[in-house]
Amino acid sequence: MAVAIRLSRGGAKKRPYYRIVVADARSPRDGKYLEQIGVYNPLLAKDDEKRVQLNEDRARYWVGVGAQPSDRVSRFLDAAGIVEREARNNPQKAEPGEKAKERAEEKAAKEAEAKEAEEAAKAEAEAPKEEEAKAEDAPAEEAAAEEAKEEAPAEEEKKDEAADEEKSEG
After folding, report:
1. Are the CB atoms for 79 and 53 separated by under 8 Å?
2. Which end of the chain, N or C, is less surrounded by CB atoms within 10 Å?
């Protein structure tokens, strides 16, 4: 006979109260059971002692003879230190499949190529502008150099005139 440790509902409408029972797995939820080993009142606060009351000795016995606890009851038994509950979460379940990973890699490669091509085009577009700017700067630099040359003789003439005036005054 397959034996289960599960909850049996009692209480009024919208006011649940559960018995923790050991029952034949084929019997109905609220039907006949072999033994009641505790109670669960979900209306009480989570840190309240009376929320889950469990006869640990009887729970250990039934688990020892092969009774299978339901998920909720296995949580209670884990909290009491009777049975260690395995995590039911599969962290790898959320990972994408192989084909999705391949598509993501291809997409990343295409984006990288597009970005490189865009940078190359940008660099090519800037190169002629830089050459034009240098070409424009070169005549301006030449003109500035010519002005400097023209100013230099004018300054020398001024110096010569100033020196001549000093001589004539002295």
Report:
1. no
2. C
Q: What's the Rg (C-alpha) of the chain?
A: 46
Q: CA-to-CA distance for 161 and 168, rounded, in angstroms?
A: 11
Beta-carbon-side half-sphere exposure of residue 100 (alpha carbons within 13 Å): 4
What pLDDT score does 106 carry?
94
Tokens of 105: 């890699």
* Spatial separation of the C-alpha atoms in residues 113 and 85, rounded to whole Å: 50
Q: At what angle do helices 71-80 and 56-64 cross, to 10 degrees?
A: 120
Place of tokens 């009851």: 73
CA dihedral 2, 78, 84, 18 (to 10 degrees): 10
Tell whether the model's pLDDT for residue 118 goes beyond 70.
Answer: yes
**Residue-range domain boundaries for the chain:** 3-80, 104-164
Percentage of residues of the chain with pLDDT beyond 90: 56
